[in-house]
Amino acid sequence: MPDPLVVFESILLHGGGGRVVFDELDWSLPRGARARIVGNRGAGGSAILRLVAGLAHPEKGRILLAGVPHAPFQFDHPFIRRGAVAWIPEDGGLIANLTLLENVALPMRFVLGARRTDAEDRALAMLDRLDLASHAALRPHALDRTERELGALARSAVMGAELWLLDRPFDDLEGPRLSCAMRLLDEALADSSRTLLVVGDGPAYRKLAPRTIRLEAGRLIEENEA
Amino acid sequence: MSSLSGQTPFWRLAATRSGRGVRQALEFLGSVAFLARECLRQSFRLRPRQAGLLYQSVRNQVRFTAVEAVPLVALIALLVGGVTLLQVLSSLSKYRAESYLSQLMALIVVREIGPLLVAIVIVGRSGTAIAAEMATLKLDREVDTLFVTGVDPMTYLLLPRILGGIISLFTLLVVFDVVALFGGYAVASSRLPLSLPLYLHALEDAIGPAELAGTLLKSLAFGSVIPLLCAHAGLRLQMSPTEIPQAVTRAAVASMVAIFLLSTVISVLCYA
To answer: Between B133, B148, B156, which is nearest A110 by CB?
Structure first.
């Protein structure tokens, strides 16, 4: 049994309007797992990703990431500080005042301490693989949604992230772009220690993450147990 | 309902409201102090390569806050220097004490008016821009992205703005003082037989270590507090873009109050 990378202990979380999203939720995700969370929109899939990433904090209980609990409002988690998390929210989450190239290179420069030229060379090579090299000098507002999502994918791929948190990344992708993104993700997750937690439903997600977890009424239910 | 319909004594309502105000003020101060502490703490963890990355941001900040504001600050300095001198001159003339003109100008402009006006210009031009930018970054969840991808938002967003603020404020203050004092001389020399060497000599006597210390302290205090308060106002946003104008207003008001308070405290410390 591989050690758990993510552990939820008795989580209580309220959403907008005081609605209970999770109550006494216990759950864990082993290192190396490829899991997808399915459920209705608003059921709490994105909230789980935000809790794992340390962006949301439960009112009760605690969340351990690589054995270390998240501390609210502090940038102290060693796993996050070393850039081990790949974060791809629905709109890509690129920084608006940086170009696509600068966005992809930023974590390499800040976290890994790479030189500007080295980081940008690697970023450009990754963008080229996603057929986005010609867009490298554009800022996010000049890119369409799929390009922003692919840019976020490139940003995580160059970092060699250990935990991939993806929020419906393929909903807008199709054709060659989808194949390209799938291929890149497959390569990024080829190492058996890499972990994937993706929110989304559809053939592309099923192919990427065989383990299915259904989110219903604030509970996480393994699909084969449902 | 009964408590609102007049049955609650006036003193209790007043106490409740003032208590709420005190609590909100303390919450605000605590939250700003937390942001300042986190920023300071993370800045000690800065690695040399990260410093190189931040240098670009500081340079951009200084270009926008200081370099692009030089014409505006110079114009204000020239006008304020001229007007102040005319006022001072008319008062001194009544007592035949025109020889104190340089000293009074130096005291008024260098000690008080210069730092305050430069700080107000920076709040208006850059502080509000910082508040709006931070609010947008927060609402678009770009701060979240920075956090999760290992880029500390305090170090990446706040530290360059504070460093840029300090450098810009000091630079603009020097520009303001020089233009105001020489603009003042230009006005004075048209009304009085005042020689430039004499004027400079009197300024040299009037501006000493206390003025230098005061200028440095005010640059440090205003330059760090303005970006801090403005970033704080922007980062406190919760949900909606409609909150952005309110955040910008809050940032400007909080910065102004802080500037006047700090100015008083530093002036008392350095010159009293």
So the answer is: B156
A120 three-class SS: helix
* Measured distance between the N- and C-terminal CA atoms of chain B, rounded to whole angstroms: 54
B98 Cβ under 8 Å from any chain A Cβ? no
B64 touches chain A (CB under 8 A): no
Domain that holds residue A162: 34-54+76-225
User: What is the torsional sign of CA B106, B110, B112, B114?
Assistant: positive
- Model's pTM, two decimal places? 0.85
Candidate from A96, A110, A114 with C-beta closest to B150 = A110
Contact A46, A199 (CB under 8 A): yes
Q: Which residues of B touch A169 (CB under 8 A)?
A: none
Q: How far is CA A183 from CA A155, A178, A204, B18, in A?
A: 15, 9, 11, 62
pLDDT band at A2 (very low <50, low <70, confident <90, very high): low
Chain A positions in Cβ-Cβ contact with residue B153 (cut-off 8 Å): 75
Q: Which of A118, A101, A86, A52 is nearest to A185 (CA)?
A: A86
pLDDT recorded at residue A225: 43
Nearest to A89 among B53, B141, B147 (CB): B141
Beta-carbon contacts of B125 under 8 Å, excluding residues fewer than 6 positions away, are B65, B69, B72
Residue A164 lies in a domain: yes
Q: What pLDDT, on the 0 to 100 scale, is given for residue B6? A: 56
> How confident is the model at residue B182, as a pLDDT?
85
Task: Work out the pLDDT band at A64, boundaries 50, 70, 90.
Answer: very high
Give A86's contacts in chain B (Cβ within 8 Å): 149
Structurally, chain A folds into a number of domains equal to 1
Residue A116: CATH number of its domain = 3.40.50.300
ipTM of the complex: 0.88
Mean pLDDT by 10 residues, chain B (272 residues): 60 81 88 90 83 88 94 92 82 77 82 93 95 91 91 90 95 93 81 78 84 90 95 86 89 95 92 80
* Closest chain A C-alpha to B37 CA, distance in angstroms: 11
* Residues of chain A found within 8 Å of residue B136, distances taken between Cβ atoms: 96
